[in-house]
Write a structure and sequence with these properties.
Length: about 140
């Protein structure tokens, strides 16, 4: 599989100073994106050309992040913000490490825009920590 996240432009719904896209994209999982504000939190990943997406994985660490750890995430995709459609969902218990999103039931996705929307956190936490995200 080829990791294609570098081919995209990234935006987030909000972030704490010093915990934004550069920290999320950094190879170290010791630093992270931290949202700042009301849920849902989201990441928009804009590709400059139509891409074929066959896999996506997130790095989460419940042991370090506790209430900042997502429990419900939905994935949307389309050609732009006006035609996003849901194409997957994850429910998480106590994730630790790289977690692959299971899209085995879905057809191959072709999109210009992928949105990852975090709807809920453990212990009703408000903000989110995401330590890594890769798209293949």
């Amino acid at each position: 599989l080829r990791e294609i996240s570098t081919l995209a432009s990234w935006t987030v719904s909000s972030s704490k100073p010093g915990s934004s896209i550069p920290q999320l994209r950094h190879p170290s999982t010791q630093i992270f994106w931290q949202s700042d504000g009301p849920q849902p939190h989201y990441l928009n990943i804009h590709f400059f050309k139509l891409v074929r997406i066959v896999g996506l994985r997130l790095y989460l660490d419940f042991e370090q992040d506790e209430s900042y750890t997502p429990t419900k995430i939905i994935f949307l995709a389309g050609s732009g913000m006006n035609d996003l459609q849901e194409w997957g969902e994850m429910r998480l218990e106590s994730p630790r490490g790289w977690i692959w999103a299971d899209f085995s039931n879905m057809p191959v996705l072709r999109a210009h825009l992928v949105q990852i929307k975090i709807l809920e956190n453990h212990q009703n936490g408000k903000d989110t920590h995401l330590r890594g995200l890769q798209i293949f």
